[in-house]
Amino acid sequence: MELHVLRQHGWSVSALARHFNINRRTVSRELEAGQPRQYPHRAPWHPFTAAQLAHIERRLAVCPVIRSTDLHRELCAGYGYAGSYWTFLRQVRPLRPALVREPEVRFETLPGVQTQADWKHLGRWPLGDDLVELHAMVTILGSSRMPAIRIASSCTREVSFERLVRCLDDLGGVTRELLTDRDTVFCNHGGQGPLFVPEWVDLCELLGTVPRACRPYRAKTKGKVERENREIEESFLCWLTGQVVPRRPTLADYDAFAAQWIREVILPRRHRTTGRIIGEAWAEERRLLMPVPAHVLERFAGDDVARPILHVVDAAQRQLGDQVDVRPLSEYEVAL
């Protein structure tokens, strides 16, 4: 119809062909017809018989999530259906009932309550004169969604603690609890179930926070840091490829790039869930954080290869009776 209207306004056949990106002969044929061409409805190949249709409706009523490939195989084997899978799929789509998904559940925490931490593998990047597998220790505040990133070349317990303390210092302090996964860096998996390692409990005691571990085989238990890990993979690494990297970069150089990316990209962003600008929300939450003790930062004498001191509690202090109470993770879950 638009073709005829433009023709009445003085458009030439060539102009109409260029505008609609079609052949001039097609334009001339449509104009001579006087009205839009009517295409007959093409009947589907191999339509379902009454028995086949009854079987499909019965199977979809019993199991709405059955795969179309399985249903097509049943129809061919038991009811003699001779159509292709794609022909079958076009006919079965209108018959499949719409699935009602449960609403998305998001767990929000108050400001200053929780920090989530996790490792993110970055792949091979230049470090010095070599290509090295790099990893990012990622922490994020549960309320304001403010992240902190520190880069390392390994994920040992010593490096994990040092990078984590640096991230907490970048965030401006420590929240009431620290949520991690059940990695061997933080937990021992023995006969009595997973237990926090003594070094991790010692460090949390010095920081003034409570260690927590996400529940096993439960989705979305530390989704905030997992979402940040995805952001690093899809945004930060692409952003990093466009930066001028030193000829022999160090871990400190990568830490500086991560901090720059957070300042330029993350802080001005408005978070979709909270609806607040991350930088403004962080400024409010930062006032509620407990600062990282100076003696804890001094004990972690990290350098460009991230080799900190592991024992944050002196052995002499343990001998004086200040033993660490190591409890099962189930007790923390019940208490919280």
UniProtKB/TrEMBL annotation:
It comes from the Bacteria. Signal peptide: none annotated. GO terms for biological process: DNA integration. GO terms for molecular function: nucleic acid binding. Gene3D superfamilies: Ribonuclease H-like superfamily/Ribonuclease H (3.30.420.10). InterPro entries: Integrase_cat-core (IPR001584), RNaseH-like_sf (IPR012337), RNaseH_sf (IPR036397). Residues 107-286 form the Integrase catalytic domain. This is IS21 family transposase. It comes from Candidatus Aeolococcus gillhamiae. The lineage of its organism: Bacteria, Bacillati, Candidatus Dormiibacterota, Candidatus Dormibacteria, Candidatus Aeolococcales.
